[in-house]
Write a structure and sequence with these properties.
Shape: flat
Largest sheet: none
Distance between the termini: 37 Å
Number of strands: 0
Helix content: 55-70%
Strand content: under 5%
Structural class: mainly alpha
Radius of gyration: 15 Å
Oligomer: single chain
Order of helices and strands: HHHH
């Protein structure tokens, strides 16, 4: 992915300036890492996996099904 694209800057960028007091806000990347750890895929290179849409979609569907089961109490 080209470093000049806005999507890339959002993915790997770091905001500048002062942060508000209190607990830091969760980042989108942190949510993805947390979801992958819950499914047992926390050590994988998910950024590289996003380059293959079919494999990424399969992983996202698996994570969504896992989350749905947890919310309904089905394990």
């Amino acid at each position: 992915m080209d470093e000049e694209r806005g999507v890339y800057r959002v993915l790997v960028g770091k905001p500048e300036g002062m942060r508000p007091m209190g607990r830091p806000r969760g980042r989108w990347v942190d949510n993805i890492k947390m979801d992958l750890q819950e499914v047992g895929c926390g050590c994988m290179d998910w950024i590289g996996l996003t380059q293959d849409r079919d494999r990424w979609r399969t992983l996202v569907c698996a994570v969504m099904k896992f989350g749905f089961r947890e919310m309904r109490g089905i394990s």
